[in-house]
């Protein structure tokens, strides 16, 4: 039998508020709610309860940032890692002959344009297009 690994629980930015807007950083994470009843006087009146985890958050990607043709697999992997880590984009790589075509998916056009310009500024890509 393989031992199960427990994942570390982390508070998200909007903790201690009655509502929360999730971000792309929350993608593929399970969300739970923890509640401790508190009287109007501010005194805790009950024990905390934790909800069951909901399914991982899925993000609707609306804009695709085409990053052009790249010939080096190592370079493609480097750019993929940067896009995922620094910009929280979903990256798709397709091989065509000796070349790779990379697409990064984002929720909004503004977000995709910002990433494209920043990748050019950082000299990680030469050109990009939006679909």
Strand order of the largest sheet: 4-5-3-6
Q: Care to count the β-strands? A: 6
In quaternary terms, these chains amount to single chain
Binned, the helix content reads 10-25%
Unreliable stretches = none
Give a structural overview.
The model has no long low-confidence stretch (mean pLDDT 78). Strand 4 (90-96) and strand 5 (99-106) form a beta hairpin. This protein has helices at residues 73-87, 109-121; strands spanning 34-35, 49-50, 63-70, 90-96, 99-106, 129-130. It is elongated, with a radius of gyration of 20 Å. Helices cover 21% and strands 22% of the residues. It is α+β, with helices and mostly antiparallel strands and 131 residues long. Strands 4-5-3-6 form a 4-stranded antiparallel β-sheet, covered by helices on one side.
């Amino acid at each position: 039998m393989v031992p199960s690994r427990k994942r570390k629980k982390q508070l998200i930015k909007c903790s201690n508020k009655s509502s929360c807007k999730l971000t792309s950083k929350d993608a593929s994470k399970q969300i739970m709610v923890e509640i401790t009843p508190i009287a109007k006087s501010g005194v805790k009146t009950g024990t905390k309860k934790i909800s069951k985890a909901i399914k991982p958050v899925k993000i609707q990607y609306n804009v695709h940032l085409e990053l052009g043709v790249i010939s080096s697999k190592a370079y493609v992997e480097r750019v993929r890692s940067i896009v995922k880590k620094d910009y929280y984009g979903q990256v798709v790589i397709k091989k065509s002959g000796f070349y790779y075509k990379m697409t990064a998916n984002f929720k909004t056009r503004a977000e995709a344009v910002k990433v494209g310009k920043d990748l050019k500024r950082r000299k990680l890509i030469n050109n990009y297009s939006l679909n």
